[in-house]
Specification:
1 helix; 173 residues; 12% helix; 12 strands
């Protein structure tokens, strides 16, 4: 009986030691914070520049942010009026690059010119106030509808450049 107990003791001791030495330490790389139904304001010198709405926000240790349930942005001009909006099914922000990406049914509206841009993916670089994509883009300007693959523009559409443009444009005499 003593031999059986000794054998069980030794077996158990070696089993535990083996499990502890083969354990792997896993690092958590998920979000550090999560928030729901958020509204954020970005301002410069007390002037509102951007208003952000999102159903869900996940923020990571490096400062990156995910908006898995969509995002809505309003951009304001120097008078405080909404100049344009951006809506997307999902969004991601890279803090280190200061770069935003919207994906899925991305719609940008310019209220100054009554323009609308539709695409599946769009990047916004706030440091240079530009938007761009290499995806198919449809731009509606009043009765005119233009289509292209790839585009780069000022965030307020004061200028833009197209790749492979096509469409019907009205010319008034």
């Amino acid at each position: 009986m003593k031999n059986v107990l000794f054998f069980l003791f030794v077996f158990t001791a070696f089993s535990c030691a083996e499990n502890e030495s083969t354990r792997e330490i896993l690092e958590y790389d998920g979000p550090l914070q999560e928030a729901e139904n958020i509204i954020m304001h970005y301002s410069e010198t007390a002037d509102l520049k951007v208003r952000l709405e999102a159903a869900k926000l996940m923020e990571y240790e490096n400062g990156d942010r995910d908006f898995p349930e969509g995002i809505y942005l309003e951009f304001y001009d120097e008078t405080g009026a909404i100049s344009s909006t951006l809506k997307a099914d999902q969004a991601h922000y890279w803090k280190e690059k200061d770069l935003w990406r919207g994906r899925g049914n991305v719609v940008v509206k310019n209220y100054t010119n009554d323009d609308q841009l539709d695409t599946e993916e769009l990047f916004w670089d706030p440091s240079v106030q530009e938007i761009y994509t290499d995806k198919v883009v449809i731009m509606t300007q009043g009765p005119d509808i233009m289509r292209g693959k790839g585009m780069k523009a000022a965030q307020d559409f004061s200028w833009y450049a197209w790749g492979d443009p096509e469409g019907v444009i009205s010319i008034q005499e």
